[in-house]
Write a structure and sequence with these properties.
The protein has a three-stranded mixed sheet, with no helix packed on it. The chain has a two-stranded antiparallel ribbon with strand order 2-3. Strand 4 (about 45) and strand 5 form a beta hairpin. The protein contains no helices and five strands. It is mainly β.
Length: about 70
């Protein structure tokens, strides 16, 4: 029998949280990886290449021109 891990819901971020990086400031330091900036503005979602954390820009607008 194989074990399955519960699927975590994507973390919601806003334009005020940009530039987005993982790990975020509120994540634990003991299990962190090198900081990587994620280009969420283009599609409204991003996935960290290190830990797989998923992010959604909840007020995403493809025509947004800065914050």
């Amino acid at each position: 029998m194989t074990e399955t891990r519960p699927v975590k819901a994507p973390r919601q971020v806003t334009y005020d949280d940009l530039p987005l990086h993982c790990p975020t400031d509120d994540m634990s330091l003991w299990d962190s990886h090198p900081r990587v900036f994620l280009p969420i503005e283009q599609t409204g979602h991003a996935k960290c290449p290190y830990c797989g954390a998923e992010y959604v820009l909840k007020d995403w607008n493809p025509h947004h021109t800065g914050h």
